[in-house]
């Protein structure tokens, strides 16, 4: 959202009301944020996307009182959601067998049609940078700040993520 719009004012008022403990405002804020958080967490955490989204929303509402600039809500929530999605995806990668073991053979037509399957082949770090740059449209500097990595690391991860995605998609 752009600064100064009526929608920004409405969101800021909703955040302030929720921070004061207004239950209706909290519910309205939950209704507003749930789809947004889900769109961020799903492509990064894959099958664990709903868990990551739930954890992210819990963190958002636990820390809502710490948000000093209500107009920055979506950027603040984005940081929490992406970090949580990466954390959940990394934890799942440590406890789940390699997803490539269950991937159909290279000639299987379902393989080329299933984007989710291709995303599973990327690391959580590569999925995160790909989602933020190509789906969220964030610039390199913003991705760098959000993920807490240097700009050259973002460029390298994005290059590798796109290359690996194209390679897997083309099979």
TrEMBL record:
Q: Read off the InterPro entries from this record.
A: RNA_pol_sigma-70-like, RNA_pol_sigma70_r4_t2, RNA_pol_sigma_r2, RNA_pol_sigma_r3/r4-like, WH-like_DNA-bd_sf
Family indicated by similarity:
Belongs to the sigma-70 factor family. ECF subfamily.
Protein keywords: DNA-binding, Sigma factor, Transcription, Transcription regulation
Q: Keyword Transcription regulation: yes or no?
A: yes
* Short name of one Pfam family: Sigma70_r4_2
Name of this protein: RNA polymerase sigma factor
The reply on keyword DNA-binding is yes
- Ranges where the RNA polymerase sigma factor 70 region 4 type domain occurs: 114-163
